[in-house]
């Protein structure tokens, strides 16, 4: 199932309108859509390594804009989003996110932005819990930017030889990065 989808994505990555698709996917993923922009960002960086940084910037800006949509949904219209949260089986993740926001605030947005955890859950929870907007935006820019620039940079640097390895280990790398980031945050906060 994923092989043909991946092949289609690689073909689409070279299209002249691919940056628009990447921006749209990034906005949608941060608010309601389940597929992360990395699936388009990586092949685009592979197809045009000299433009990898601009693709990462598009994904970052789009993701933060989508995060603001998710934030607004949580802040103004949580009652409309709650059935979707339940239907998508994100209810437990959402409740956990709300608890974390009450305790950690800014740091949760930063880690969620970088991690493979569904970011949309955290954007909606941030709005629902009333996380301050400016710290939310800053943490989103830092977390999402770090993630997308890392993905684009690694793919552009490693090229085709890195792609199979990255696809095999993307989940593990994501979780290792989250653990390292969490340890860094704990060290800064309590060290």
TrEMBL record:
InterPro entries attached to this UniProt entry: DedA_domain (IPR051311), VTT_dom (IPR032816)
Gene Ontology cellular component annotations, sorted alphabetically: plasma membrane
Domain VTT: 54-155
TM region positions: 20-41, 53-81, 117-141, 148-167, 173-190
Keywords recorded for this protein, A-Z: Membrane, Transmembrane, Transmembrane helix
Keyword Transmembrane: yes
Protein name listed in UniProt: VTT domain-containing protein
Organism for this UniProt entry: Halorhodospira halophila (strain DSM 244 / SL1)
Organism classification: Bacteria, Pseudomonadati, Pseudomonadota, Gammaproteobacteria, Chromatiales
